[in-house]
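User: Can you model how zinc ion sits in this protein?
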Amino acid sequence: MIIDAHTHIGAMGKDDRNVTVADLLQSMDEAGIDMSLILANDIAVSDDWRGMSADDILTQCAGNDRIKVIGNITISRDINDQLLRLREHVEAGVVVGIKLYPGYENFYPSDERLKPVYEFCQKFNIPVVLHTGFLLQGSPGIQEQAHPNSIDKIVNLFPELIFIMAHFGNPWTAEAARVIAQHQNIYADLSGFFTEYDEHISLEEKADFYQKMKEFISITGNLKKCLFGTDWPLYSQKEYLAAVQELPMKDEERDLFFWKNSSRIFGLAA
Ligand SMILES: [Zn+2]
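Assistant: Here's the modeled complex, given as structure tokens:
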């Protein structure tokens, strides 16, 4: 069983090509991936950004048991109103988490305005996925907002809530590992590491990835708090999976990493 905990659809293909759930399912079949989570990205990053809301995604994949959706909240609009819209999907079990984009939007994870989001996730027992690491050129926020250390405070304030650092804080992966090692309620997905839209993942980039992961594992001790994720369609799922499968893992780590963590954290029927 393999679950990709980090994918997107919409105007995310190379040269802003529109990618669909059908494209994703085809990619999953080619890669041997059983389930994927599609992350909504309906945020205020720039004037020409065309993001997908949970509703947009659900119109394409409703009823498909290989796909679940992670909704998002944008700080640029009424937060309670957005939570109200997500609520029925969460109760129906089709939206299984909420993503926030600190740095892509101008806020810190500990921003007071987000308190209702964390309380909502705690109440419905769904995790919060936070963007960490590199920001797109032109992002309105600042790098510090997307640094793993900026999550420390909110993870401490909501010890019952599960947090997931998207992209394991890259390039600050050692700092991400320290935050993960300290708190029991934070995990990382290993998505989005390589050069976007490259035809193939290069040997040099793989070497850099393994070096970073070696340091990461030396701090956390293992990969038991990591989740497999790709950030498809920015990368081929098949190539990303092959690259990650070369990481040294014991069998129990491998199961947690490739599906058991995602299955448990997102409450998937896998
Ligand atoms: Zn992503």
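A couple of observations from the model: The beta strands are 3-7, 35-39, 67-72, 95-100, 128-131, 163-166, 186-189, 226-227. DSSP finds nine helices and eight strands in the chain.
User: Helpful, thanks.
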